[in-house]
Amino acid sequence: MIRRLLVANRGEIARRIFATCRAVGVETVAVYSIADTDSPYVAEADYAVQLPGSAPSATYLRGDLILAAARKTGADAIHPGYGFLAENADFAAMVTDAGLTWVGPPAKIISVMASKIDAKALLAEAEVPVLPSWTDPSAVDEYPVLVKAAIGGGGRGMRIVRDAESLGEAVSSARREAFGAFGDSTVFCERYVEQARHIEVQIVADQHGNIVTLGERECSIQRRHQKIIEEAPSPAVSPELRENLCAAAVLVAEAIGYVGIGTVEFLLSPDGEFYFLEMNTRLQVEHPVTECVTGFDLVRLQMYLAEGGQLPFASAPPMRGHSIEVRLCAEDPASNWLPATGQVHRFAVPEVSAQFRPMLQPGIRVDSGVEPGTVVGVHYDSLLAKLVAWAPTRYEAARMLAGTLARTRIHGLVTNRDLLVRVLRHPAFLTGQIDTGLLDRQPEVFAPLLSSVEAVRLSCLAAALAAAAGRRAAAPVQRGIPSGWRNVPTGAQTVVYDGPAGPVEVGYRLDGTGALAQWWVRAVDPEELDLAGLGQVGPVDDHPPVAVVSAAPDEVVLDVAGIRLALHVHEVGETAYVDSAEGSLALRRLPRFPEPVQELEEGSLTAPLPGAVGRVLVAPGQRVGAGDLLLTLEAMKLEHPVHAPADGVVAAVTVRPGVLVDTGALLAVLTPA
Question: DSSP string of 132-148?
């Protein structure tokens, strides 16, 4: 029996496993890097051991250090979570050789399925349908193909290639990314199927030869080949297709003698044919949707199987309703999915029914790796939290999840929240007409929720009124005087904010009773009027009348043409976060008398995100063409290229490999041709 469990992972999945351990009476041990010292999961463990350093290669990928932590704390079992060492056969063998219980399949099974190349060859012999592939990229003779890392998952080390000219660089880039994430640079090429769906089957197998499937999951909404929305069951899977998929998954498990919880992934083509992709010999990120529709705690089941238990059921129970999960990530979808870093100032999800464990009745579940105050850095994955809805029908689940996401207050970081809401509300999603290329065909989902000009103006006005109310509340004397009182009645209060489309000026004038007599929101630079979409707003009769019902430092209630709208304002330093039923907006207050800043010389290339400089491919004096790769940045386990914006000559390179840079740091200077 497991008494004390060490989780060889971090963040959200560590908290998820700890929750089940508390429920069943198992003591917990956390390991953490220096960067994770203040992470929530560390405080939730009964014991915690620091691993020296912050980089994954120096911490969570060091099996020897993790085993030393287990011995030091008296742990008798290790759960790997997902990612890092979860599918590392050598680490699994180290754990069992040390006399500890490994919560996962045996090392020899992980080894068999660790390489996608070997797994495909093995299962092709077992007559499981597979796609054509090439282990030697130079032998590829048809396009498009998908370059894939042979080891690991999570979409890392994947590149779509549509012609022979692009293959070499795609293979090189995929190899570097795969090595950085998994310590193995082996890649292969596989036929790429357009408009395919990603379907996976959850399997459970005990040490007594019993294998049961727990239905399928649809994971087709992806970015960068990484899933961001998953659901169970799939809207595309009929009872007959489900039976065939589950039978193929059992065939895979039987072919390798699988033990434990695992996932068999398939590609479903538009013509209804399916092909084996890979097998994940671990818990999946999207396991909560299966927990919702089956009622099983899969982490608890993992531990039970690791203790040698026999499956208490002979077949899968019928699925209960529908469940959808979204991955809330620190990234900017509109800027090529650039990851974001910073401190989480507020993270508040309304109407939460459960955290980190199955629900007893329909509702919203949240599995989060962050809390207010958590700092998100460049070292690890961008996943912040998973929000899961469970409802009687798919439409109800989508509506519930979209509404909850829209009302969630997330301050301090740029996230993909608005995109997730728009996808959940999109007709293509609601009708189940989805595939892995949906985001490429629906650019409208990248628009912010707060997209109407009038809503943006009202949010700006609310930020200014809340700030004034805050100043009055903090005033040492005469707090009762109306904010903005002037001897000269034509005087107005103004403030300049840096908004999503550039600087805007907010002005307003109150009458003697404190009522709003006039207000405007206009772009500071007349040349940016179209860009900002605001223009100048004159007297109040130029647009629907607005009355201030109440104004407090944290909430402003406006009456807009007879309709009341509450806007919640949260100020952190110079930034105001405004949340309403329309959406969210972050506004940074600009100083009235800004300090002069040094102008960058023409042709300067700056870092689009914080990270470590990877490769530097150019030198001063070198000629480059538009689109040429100049250097790379590494952040959140991904490689981000920096290309030449135009033809020119490299005048200077100001960084070297391995150096950490912040957003906006000067990388190189290019003299245009």
Answer: -EESSGGG--SSSEEEE
Token output for 373: 């105050």
CA–CA gap between residue 532 and residue 543 (Å, rounded): 18
DSSP 400-450: HHHHHHHH-EEESS--SHHHHHHHHHSHHHHTT---TTHHHH-GGGGS-S-
Q: Could you give the angle at which helices 89-97 and 107-114 cross, rounded to 10 degrees?
A: 170
Rounded to 5 degrees, φ, ψ at 205 are: -135, 135
pLDDT category at 527 given cuts 50, 70, 90 is low
Of 348, 404, 343, give the one whose Cα is nearest residue 376: 343
Q: Where are the beta strands (DSSP E) in 273-360?
A: 274-280, 322-329, 331-332, 338-339, 342-343, 346-348, 354-355
* Rg over CA atoms, the chain: 27
* Contact yes or no for 144/162 (Cβ under 8 A): yes
Across residues 123-141, what is the average pLDDT? 88
Q: Which token pair is 31?
A: 């390991």
Please name which of 660, 667, 611, 656 lies closest in space to residue 635, comparing C-alpha atoms: 611
Structure tokens at 138: 């130079």
pLDDT band of residue 117 (cuts 50, 70, 90) is confident
> CA-CA distance, 504 to 524, in Å (whole number)?
5
Question: Residue 634: is its pLDDT beyond 90?
Answer: no
226 compared with 528, residue with greater pLDDT: 226
| Longest distance between any two alpha carbons in the chain, whole Å | 89
Closest of 267, 248, 198, 259 to residue 228, by C-alpha: 198
d(CA 154, CA 278): 12
Q: In this structure, are residues 347 and 372 in contact, taking their beta carbons and an 8 Å threshold?
A: yes
Rounded Cα distance between 601 and 598, Å, is: 9
Average pLDDT over residues 314-324: 92
Q: What is the DSSP string of 53-99?
A: SSSGGGTTT-HHHHHHHHHHHT--EEE--SSTTTT-HHHHHHHHHTT
Task: Give the mean model confidence (pLDDT) for residues 635-664.
Answer: 87
pLDDT number for residue 154: 64
Q: How many CB atoms lie within 10 A of CB 171?
A: 20
How distant, in Å, are the alpha carbons of 221, 266, 281, 460 from that of 366?
20, 27, 24, 31
d(C-alpha 95, C-alpha 290), whole Å:
28
How far is Cα 515 from Cα 469, in angstroms, rounded to an integer?
Answer: 14
pLDDT at position 529 is 42
Residue 533 clears pLDDT 50, i.e. is over it: no
Q: Determine the pLDDT at residue 672.
A: 86
Cα–Cα distance, 473 to 480 (Å, whole number): 9
CB 285 within 8 A of CB 302: no
Query: Residue 479 — pLDDT band, cuts 50, 70, 90?
Result: low
